[in-house]
Amino acid sequence: MPLSRRQTLRTLGLGAATLAAPAVMRHAALGADPITVVGIHDASGGLDIYGLPMIACLSFAVDEVNAAGGLLGREIKLINYDPQSNIQLYTQFATQAATSDHAAVVHGGITSASREAIRPILRRYRTLYFYNTQYEGGVCDRNCFCTGSTPAQNVQKLVPYVMKKWGKKIYILAADYNYGQITSKWVTKYCRENGGEVVAADFFPLNVTDFGATIQKIQQAKPDMVMSVLVGGAHVSFYRQWAAAGMKKKIPMASTTLGGGNETLLLTPEEADGIVVAYSYFQEVDNPANKEFLQKFHAKLGDKAPYLGGELAMRTYVGFHLWAEGVRRAKSTDRMKVIEALESGIAFDGPPGRTVIDGKTNHVSLDVYLAEVVNRGFKVLEHFPNQPPADTASVCDLKAHPNTDRQFVIDVKI
Known about the structure:
By secondary structure, this protein is of the alpha/beta class. It folds into 2 domains: 2-149 and 287-366 and 387-407, Rossmann fold (3-Layer(aba) Sandwich), CATH 3.40.50.2300; 155-255, Response regulator (Rossmann fold), CATH 3.40.50.2300. The chain is built from 15 helices and 17 strands. It has helices at 5-11, 16-30, 48-67, 87-99, 112-124, 155-166, 178-193, 212-221, 236-244, 263-266, 269-272, 288-301, 312-330, 335-343, 390-393; strands spanning 2-3, 35-40, 76-81, 105-108, 128-131, 139-141, 144-146, 169-175, 197-204, 225-229, 253-255, 276-279, 347-350, 353-358, 363-374, 377-387, 405-407. Strands 8, 9, 10, 11, 12, 13, 14, 15 and 16 form a 9-stranded mixed beta sheet that branches.
């Protein structure tokens, strides 16, 4: 269902009355012709663990820009829709954003399935689309900008690190859709390149909650580690059942996804501590821009500010600011003018470090961090600046082929 401005603020723990007067004054100062931005993120359903922090960061970014004078002298009007983790609602709200709301841009989608429901609709209606989520790579569409990290950026750093730390034999558990399936191939590729072996790979629908039989299989296989590519609220059950079976003390674990939905807040330290992950952002990143952001974010939202584990919420914040800079450079909200401005290599120096749009792929170069779970948070272990989207760049060249409209399944040599 659509989340009104009032509902969104209530969801985030903000009093609507405290912002009403400033909003009215801004509207009067900035003129009567706002720029409409639409967010489509799950505020309910099985993916709300990811969606709610993304909504918080998108709303915060819009307020930042409005407080600084808006864009082109106009206020930004944010409409947030809740697709309730339902693909049909994703398509409905994408259509509504393009045809009824006349959005200048849509920021939305969490799973790759939701992205591929949104993307063709927005391309058809010529509405600019930002997908701000870590994913498996390969989208090649001039109308779509992907600001999250991809396997050549995060998995490529994670796998060699944990193999050096724990050993050569990996057991993969993954969500049974294209993110899990394709990312598992990348895990296998980097495992073999570093002299290792994937002893098994098991895939699970997003609604699976019982992992007892799988835990028995892992016990029998005796890997050096487990690599989790699990997704969503239901899959959190695995970490609990793994610890309850006494396995956490016997076989260590890494994950390409844990923390993206603040799962570490749901799990006890006994269930999660020591799991190693790789993302383009952690709340614990130590740089001046992140400290300033967190101070303002917490001042605005108070004790209702979500913990920003993983990268999805922060990439949403960064994605909005990249789009806003594209509008400033283009001096217009016209879709093609903004696309051309973005493709010129626009950068944003923010809490995660420097993010630069790659005009060949409409993906980004970004910093990557390795971290381990410690007491419901993360301890940053290593930092890798300026990692390019090499996987997608191997299949996508929008400069040479600007009319490309597809997601390539990258041929992962395993």
